[in-house]
Structures are given as C-alpha cells and as structure tokens.
Amino acid sequence: MVRHANAADKDKIMLLYKRVAAMPNGLARSFDEITESYIRDFMQHSVKSGLEFVIDNPDDADEIIAEIHCYKPGPKVFNHVFGELTIVVDPAYHNKGIGKLIFIHLLNCISDNRSDILRIELAVKESHENAIRLYKKIGFIAEGRFDKKFKDGENSYDADIPMAWFNKNFIPRNASSQAL
C-alpha cells in the first residue's frame, strides 16, 4: 500500500497538496504557494538525501491520497538529521489511519535501513492537537515552543511545536566520511 514516490508522481502529488492546502489549516503553505517548483524541489531533495513515500488511492490509480517526505538539511554537521518533514493526507481519508500508516512506514524504513540517521525533525502548529497526539504516540517528543510563529489571520497567531524522533538503530560515523 505504501510505496516510494517517483518522478512520475509529481503531478499527482501536486494535486494532493492543492487539495490539502485548500482546507482551513490544511498546510502551512497556502493554495497559491503550492507550485510545480515547490513540489519538484522537495522531491529532488528527498531523492538526493532523504526519503519520500506515497499511498495511491485504492479505487483510482491516478490519484495519490497520502505523501510523506524528509531529507537532510545540507551542512555536514547535520548529516545525522532528516528535517523538512511534511506529511499530507487527502481530506477524504482523514481519521482512517492513513497518516499513521505512512508515518510508521517511514520510521520503520529509517530504523531498518538508515543507521546513519539519528534524528527526525518536524514542526506542528500547537492548535493541531490531533497531529501532536499522533506524533507522540509514534515516538516523537516535543522539544519546545515557538510562540506566535504561525500567522493564522490578520491578528491571530499560533505557536510552532518542534518535535523529534530518535532512531534506536543509529550508528555514529565520522562526520567527514558522511556524504550528503
């Protein structure tokens, strides 16, 4: 059900992101910020130094209903970190276990195959209590709070909660030998 994303998925992923961005509080990015270059950029980063998975619609092979990606931030001192984690689930599939399924698949893949990765980072709006509960349930810990980081309206703000998950199968390596 969960599979690696590939370049041919770009348009389907863009449509999924647009569906989610059109919802109130769907994504940090607005509908008009979901561009071809945005999708292409995170897909290229994921191929180069991270992971990206999707779930196809079981009733329509031309539609993706969930996507998750993360990748290394760049400088060698962070080669043990996957950041920029984003997960999107089609609104029609919320509360059906799809987000948990794809997230656990990602974490298991990292545990089983990426001993070079110690830490996975994400940030979530404080008001997204269901998401925070899910992240905690699958092993993430909250690491602080950035007050009023998200602008939710003209005079409305929300805090950003940074969270991290740690790979129990991490094997430390010499930083200079790690490739991006």
Note the topology:
Layout: E1 2-4, H1 10-21, H2 36-49, E2 50-57, E3 60-71, E4 81-89, H3 98-113, E5 119-125, H4 129-137, E6 141-142, E7 146-151, E8 157-166
Parallel strand pairs: 4-5
Antiparallel strand pairs: 1-2, 2-3, 3-4, 5-8, 6-8, 7-8
CATH topology: Aminopeptidase
Order of helices and strands: EHHEEEHEHEEE
Strands, total number: 8
What's the overall geometry? Answer: globular
User: Class in CATH?
Assistant: Alpha Beta
Task: Say which CATH homologous superfamily is assigned.
Answer: Gcn5-related N-acetyltransferase (GNAT)
Instruction: Tell me the domain tally.
Output: 1
The CATH architecture would be 3-Layer(aba) Sandwich
Oligomerization state? single chain
CA radius of gyration is: 16 Å
Low-confidence stretches: none
Q: What class, by secondary structure content?
A: alpha+beta
Strand content: 25-35%
User: Can you summarize the main beta sheet?
Assistant: 8 strands, mixed
Q: Approximately how much helix is present in the residues?
A: 25-40%
N- and C-termini, Cα separation: 29 Å
What would you note in describing this structure?
The protein has 180 residues and is α+β, with helices and mostly antiparallel strands. It has a single domain (2-177), classed as Gcn5-related N-acetyltransferase (GNAT) (Aminopeptidase, 3-Layer(aba) Sandwich). It contains four helices and eight strands. It has helices at 10-21, 36-49, 98-113, 129-137, and strands spanning 2-4, 50-57, 60-71, 81-89, 119-125, 141-142, 146-151, 157-166. α1 packs across α2.
